[in-house]
Design goal:
- The protein is an all-alpha fold.
- It has one domain.
- The chain has 1 helix and no strands.
- The radius of gyration is 23 Å and the shape is elongated.
- The N and C termini lie far apart (71 Å).
Length: 58
């Protein structure tokens, strides 16, 4: 079986423009998901710290 070569659209073509926009949208979505995950992780850390300090008896 022959290996397939990736298709590259000509610069300025509608397909290249669409591909570029999809790549941008996917990168933006990935960044949003990473930011959301980081925010959730920070909130959990704050909650854990608060619970620890509330139960801390020197």
């Amino acid at each position: 079986m022959r290996a397939l070569k990736p298709f590259k659209a000509a610069q300025g073509s509608r397909l290249a423009d669409y591909s570029s926009r999809m790549g941008d949208a996917l990168a933006r979505r990935r960044a949003e998901l990473e930011a959301r995950a980081a925010r959730i992780e920070a909130e959990l850390a704050i909650k854990s710290r608060s619970e620890f300090l509330a139960n801390y008896e020197p």
